[in-house]
Amino acid sequence: MSSIGIGTTDTTTATGAHTDEAAVLIGGARERIDALDDRIIGLVQERMAVSAVIQEARITSGGRRVNLSRETAVLGHYRDALGKPGTALAMTLLELCRGRV
């Protein structure tokens, strides 16, 4: 017979915490992360829309859809702010914002 769950509440089991106090803290922090994730998703969608406007203006004026020097600057900005993982994040954002070919 397993002792998992004995002496713990559903909250501690769900959070992986070993005390009710830690479970409450983790639960509140997870709610905050969920709210932040919703805001981040909204900002990414807004960035995609603004990027589409820029690309349309560039193409309409005879330019290319993508401006590589601008993308390089964005990559550098994220790398400087967040380190190497920032570069990967920026690459994902740029890919999302390039639109469909």
TrEMBL record:
PROSITE patterns: CHORISMATE_MUT_2 (PS51168). InterPro entries: Chorismate_II_sf, CM_dom_sf, CM_II_prokaryot. Residues 20-101 form the Chorismate mutase domain. This is Chorismate mutase.
